[in-house]
Design goal:
Distance between the termini: 104 Å
Strand content: 5-15%
Oligomer: single chain
Number of strands: 10
């Protein structure tokens, strides 16, 4: 071997030489990623016995259907084919070309690669497991974000807190194949690359490359999740504040322009975003801030005060004229309803359809406590340390933390966006508190005098105590649960250690084994019914029925047609004749079944008798939203001849009243409603399936004129049995519509 080769190998070896601190950091990061992956894959224990891994919740089934279409027909096929799925939102169908492409494209591309390599796995299992892998990736990226902001220790703490953030764990665990995944990946990559592009020590070429990377990450966010409005507004606010603080420079102008411009240019090519996106209020603010930065750069030149004032006045006038003109001619788009309610939660009560969705509700104090825990202390100290050192990165982090907390408190779903900001600020707070103790602990004692040696010894002891106290607080955050019923299980683990929603019969419980009632019903519809058969159900279950159950539905979680959801609410809250009159408008030849979901609590009295009563997890808890939503359409329904003016309603209060002792007491109109009759009948059917062993606690004798039970999932042999104490029995009833009897009874 030549001398040159030897020197080259020595240089290479020297370049790869790792010190102990680097080894510790890499080891810690690998451990954090392992924990993040393990926690998210825990629900698999409920899926293994059935041999099929299912998706979680409802929306992931929509994403799964688009992914399947892309696998079969090409990544751009939903958009080039203008695919309309007529098994959803009958009769118009659901325009699938209006879907966000980021997540299904990612999954379809990776599935094609895996299939090409010879790995045989079904698409649903692949999508469910891919969620875990993609949910772990942001933890790795956030480490580098934290490292850039405050060093390796901040990066490690930030990664750890994101890995175990309850809101993010819940929405990135096995099967949660939904918009939050591309949203979080795009968010953390954008923050990392955008701020690297602003680094003044970096070359112009390097800055441009990072700006392009940040634009691609932001485009991925925009085409993956509607919550991208938040990030766009946050960056615009950050740039505007830098202008006010006179910190804006040409590097910021260039990076901002390239990142925002390129990301929007890419995003608007897809129909779900479209060119109208550029005329929405948040995007116009982004453009306005860019204009302000241009003016700021121009005003830095040596011009007279008079010309400076004239320039400012002209620009402000031009902006106002443009906004007024766009508004007058109807080109200026506002925010969609649910986005507006994030900014102003007080208007949510006036939109019952939005308020009826659990993830759209205002975050309760309990949810905030579970999210922040004892680390709320470190979050506040993190705010203090970033405010004390107001670098550009820290200014952004302050804005990210404060606005993220506001929006996370405004809508429970958006706690996931707050999670990375919380992790970074907690990391800053922990490191800031530990730093003086670590310095004191590492200092060499001054041996000049005995007194000084004594003081240094006491100081070290106190520094060690301080470090131990902080570590104990952190350990309580991760190792224990604040909820006694979880028997000390860590918060993040408790949040993930639950089966997928469909495997737990859509119940918010953690059973000892899979609860197959919904799976049985969907298997029944997919094997016994035709795909053209319309099964009427409340919109919550639309995705399951159309995609997994292979039947046609009137509405689902896309909620694209509020009028049709109002009609569905009417179908359930009206009496049988008026209900079927509404369904006749959709065609008697296709509308054949109506479905109801209820959950019964079964208990045993002192005499050993078993009784059942509604528990509130099914339609017995959702009927009030059916009443409020359909009641909001009272005038339209009366005008169209469906709602009887003599029995019209505006809200749930027209169907009964609440009694402090008896609970909800139905009035005559409520007793005659379809939902009330179905809930009573399915409870009676369940009682008969147990041979009368379980007696309905309330009188359930009811007569259905035009609806006949076909299949009750959860009754008969499917019921798992009784034991002392409480037993929960989820029941899904499929009822066939007797159109012949209805038509014979019409005048």
């Amino acid at each position: 071997m030549s001398k040159g080769q030897t020197n080259g190998l020595k240089s290479l070896k020297k370049g790869f030489k790792l010190n102990y601190s680097t080894i510790i950091v890499i080891s810690a990061l690998i451990l954090i990623l392992f924990v993040a992956f393990t926690v998210r894959v825990l629900p698999i224990r409920w899926e293994i016995p059935s041999g099929q891994i299912h998706l979680n919740e409802f929306d992931p089934y929509y994403q799964y259907s688009i992914t399947g279409y892309m696998v079969d027909n090409g990544l751009l096929s939903p958009y080039t084919d203008h695919w309309v799925n007529y098994q959803q939102w009958y009769p118009d169908g659901l325009d699938m070309s209006r879907s966000y492409p980021a997540l299904p494209m990612t999954a379809a591309a990776l599935y094609n690669v895996v299939s090409f390599l010879g790995v045989n796995v079904d698409l649903m299992t692949f999508c469910a497991v891919l969620t875990v892998l993609l949910g772990t990736l942001p933890c790795l990226v956030l480490y580098f974000v934290g490292k850039d902001m405050g060093g390796k220790a901040v990066g490690l703490f930030a990664a750890l807190f994101l890995a175990l953030a309850p809101s993010f764990v819940q929405r990135s665990s096995l099967g949660f194949f939904d918009s939050e995944i591309p949203g979080m990946i795009g968010l953390v990559f954008f923050v990392l690359l955008f701020f690297r592009s602003l680094d003044s020590k970096r070359s112009l070429r390097g800055s441009l490359l990072y700006s392009i990377g940040a634009a691609l990450a932001l485009a991925y966010f925009i085409t993956g999740w509607g919550a991208a409005y938040y990030v766009l507004g946050l960056v615009a606010l950050f740039a505007f504040i830098l202008v006010i603080l006179k910190r804006a420079d040409r590097r910021l102008l260039t990076s901002y322009g390239i990142t925002m411009g390129l990301s929007l240019l890419i995003s608007i090519q897809f129909p779900q975003v479209g060119y109208s996106y550029l005329l929405t209020a948040p995007i116009l603010l982004v453009i306005a801030v860019f204009a302000v930065m241009l003016i700021n750069e121009f005003l830095k030149r040596n011009i007279s005060a008079k010309n400076r004032m004239l320039t400012i006045a002209a620009v402000i006038s031009a902006i106002l004229v443009c906004l007024i003109s766009l508004t007058y001619f109807g080109y200026l788009g506002g925010l969609a309803g649910k986005f507006a309610t994030v900014l102003n939660p007080s208007i949510r009560s006036s939109a019952p359809l939005i308020a009826s969705v659990a993830e759209h509700r205002v975050t309760a104090w309990g949810n905030l406590y579970l999210e922040l825990g004892i680390c709320a202390i470190f979050f506040l100290t993190g705010l203090y340390f970033t405010l004390k050192n107001p670098t550009n990165r820290n200014i952004f982090l302050l804005l990210f933390g404060i606005t993220g907390l506001y929006f996370g408190a405004s809508m429970v779903r958006l706690l996931v966006i707050f999670a990375p900001a919380f992790g970074l600020l907690v990391g800053m707070g922990v490191v800031g508190l530990l730093k003086p103790f670590m310095i004191m602990f590492k200092e060499t004692p001054n041996v000049a005098t005995k007194a000084k040696r004594k003081l240094m010894r006491v100081g070290k002891e106190y520094s060690g105590l301080g470090i131990l106290l902080i570590l104990i607080l952190l350990m309580t955050q991760f190792a224990f649960s604040p909820i006694p019923k979880q028997e000390g299980m860590p918060r993040a683990v408790a949040g993930a250690y639950a089966p997928t929603s469909i495997s737990s019969a859509a119940l918010p419980v953690t059973p000892s084994e899979q609860m197959p009632q919904w799976l049985n019903m969907l298997d029944y519809t997919s094997t016994k019914l035709k795909s053209s058969d319309i099964v009427v159900s409340w919109w919550d279950y639309g995705y399951w029925l159309s995609i997994q159950g292979n039947v046609t539905t009137l509405a689902d979680n896309a909620t694209v047609n509020s009028t049709q959801i109002e009609n569905l609410g009417f179908v359930y809250m009206a009496n049988e004749k008026l209900s079927l009159k509404m369904l006749s408008a959709y065609g008697q030849q296709n509308v054949k079944y109506i479905l109801v979901f209820t959950v019964l609590a079964i208990w045993q009295d002192d005499s050993g008798n078993y009784y059942s009563q509604p528990w509130g997890y099914g339609d017995e808890g959702k009927w009030s939203w059916m009443a409020d939503i359909s009641g909001g359409a009272k005038d339209r329904l009366i005008k169209e001849g469906f709602m009887d003016p003599n029995s019209a309603w505006t809200s749930r209060d027209d169907f009964g009243s609440y009694d402090a002792y008896a609970g909800w007491v139905w009035n005559e109109q409520g007793e005659n409603s379809v939902i009330r009759k179905l809930l009573l009948d399915i409870e009676q059917e369940f009682s008969e399936s147990t041979g009368g062993l379980v007696t309905p606690y309330y009188n359930s004798n009811v007569s259905l004129d035009y609806l006949k039970p076909v299949y009750i999932a959860g009754a008969g042999e499917e019921f798992s049995g009784l034991s002392t104490g409480y037993t929960i029995a989820p029941l899904i009833g499929l009822y066939e519509i007797d159109w012949a009897a209805y038509n014979a009874g019409r005048p």
